[in-house]
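Thread title: Can someone regenerate the structure for this chain?

I was given the following input by a collaborator and told the matching structure tokens would be attached. They weren't. Posting the sequence so someone can regenerate them.
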Amino acid sequence: MSQNRKYLWIALGLTLALLSAVSQAQDFKKQVIYQIITDRFNNGDGTNDNPAQSSGLYDATKTNWHLYWGGDLAGIQQKMSYLAGMGVTAIWISPPVDNLNLNIPDSGGNPTASYHGYGARDFKRIEEHFGAAANNWTAFDSLTAAAHTNHIKVIVDFAPNHSNPNAAGEFGSLYDNGTFLAAYNNDPNGIFHHNPEIADYNDRYQLQYYTLFSLADLNQENATVDAYLKAAMTQMQAHGVDGFRVDAVKHTTWNWQYSMANSVYANAPSFIFGEWLQGSTGDSLYHDSYKFANHSGMALLDFPLFTAMRDVFAYGNSFSEIDTTLATEGSNFTWQNDLVTFVDNHDTPRLLSLYNNSNRLNEALAFELTSRGIPVIYYGDEQLLHNDTGGGGDPYNRPWMSTYDTTTTGYKLISKLAGLRQSNNSLAYGTSQQRWINSDVYIYERKFFNEVVLVAINKNDTTSYNITGLNTALPAGSYTDYLTGLLGGSGISVSTGSGGNNPVTSFTLGAHAVAVWQVIGSVAAPEVGSIGPTVAQAGVTVTIAGKGFGTATGSVLFGTTPAAITTWSATSVTFTVPAVGNGVYSVVLKNSSGTAANAIQFTVLTAKLIPVTFTVNNASPTNVGDFIFLTGNTVELGNWTTTFDGAVGPMLTPNYPNWFLNAAMPAGTAIQFKFVKIAANGTVTWENGANHTYTVPASGTGSVTVNWQY
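Best answer:
Regenerated them for you:
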């Protein structure tokens, strides 16, 4: 073989591998994510326990819960077969970037360290406790390579809101690959916001621009910070990262994050979800949260469902709380199957610390793994790991992972249901319907065309229930429990009904039992269940996933305009967004015979997004509950819509009556815009005069200031 042909085949092989990774990286709905606190999982490399540049922050005795205990990237890599055997298809690791080097004593004078990763000093280097003293990427590259070999994707926890504590240690010092940029007490170029601690967690301005937990708050409107954070994410993608969990999205400039997500998607295929902390769908900023998820291109961790699961499985509340939460979110979130669900996490006591009952934890895990959304398993839940000191909150919710038993009920449960998530599309792409409910029992159905999963959970530890009057979309026949009795479930019989309501013969659902029944039907036409990302400009790679596409290449249409197809398989198609006008499209996939699938929504942007700060002085007088919004002539500006969900905002007014907002705008585009007041009762007041005009810079950041036109 000639050298040219040899290199051609090598290049072709690399291209095919990359394209395969593309489709996997963009469709996360089928994934089961395992969240790992890197320092607490496994010590794979003892040489990095006490590195010279940050010595004294390691506790070999594991008695100081605020110091490093030795877990590292090599340790995660060594447990890859354990993770793969459990059915895990993605790992979410704590922030791996170089963190604070100095000890900051707690109130009792005890040493503390940034073992958790949320005290960054250099976003472009790897923490020496997790990798090597050189802060290089070697251990990280080895981890991502091993994960991908095991068909496991890597999600990095990324914290763009802040660096490290602003009044101690390194005083928030930020470095760019070793070069000092600024410190909170040495900040001539405005790298940081210099504002007080957040006092009102319902105030949109304070949330985004004030200080969170004394951490030096980064100024994303600063061109240097904007470029730095986006470059750090691009660098991580180059080192094999498939997705990002973004920390504290409620506290990071909201609309700036639209441009952050767009930068990630424009660079390489990925999945992004963020932490928007809230208690329930009754939270005062719940509307803001689903507006953010519907427009930013980022999914959210599902805190309202997390609260409902805690209330039901730990505190004994009725299943109606979960059912109501699912229904409410289902009517609000455009991409509800992209919501990321969790039973436990690193910021709250584990469920077993609230109610030490392994049945309840396994029931909660079974619910999470079969309900709508992308499930996250917190490390050690499969081993019943918990420490109840002080109620089990931070840091005691982050114990050392001391056992990796593959025979536990939890391990086997996760493995079985992770497998079902891969084989039956209804769990990833399907609708949700409550079929039978009382305080203790929840029976619900997931359905994607002819694929159906029916799940029954009884959380009562002593009482069985006779289930009568249950209907299902399962076809007539007999069904065994997919879990093969692992959680006490049994088979059912279904007879013929009508309208998708086939009667289930009465049966007994035992105490603390979970049963799962399923069917995979035939495919009459292409069936689309996912598109990712959901918003992008022309030229960006997008993946459509589903079933029945056929192996021969068909077409993907934006209106009548075809997209350029990159890869095509029976279940996944990648393409590039065509050069069409900006707006919301119903995208249609057709197989090679011209048979169309169900349409799926996609937003085409005008151009790549960059952050622009808009200020309007002396705006229309407002009363409590009234807000100023921005609207204009592109999809990024809402295409002149004047609703809370369609217009950009609400704007912020720390200096009333002047209002401002950082918004993600199409680069290099001449835009027209106006400001409107939306009163508490919904009445809209436009400013007078001609449209404002502004040409968005081709790169970097921008700003524009105008006066309200009376």
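The chain is about 20% helix and 30% strand.
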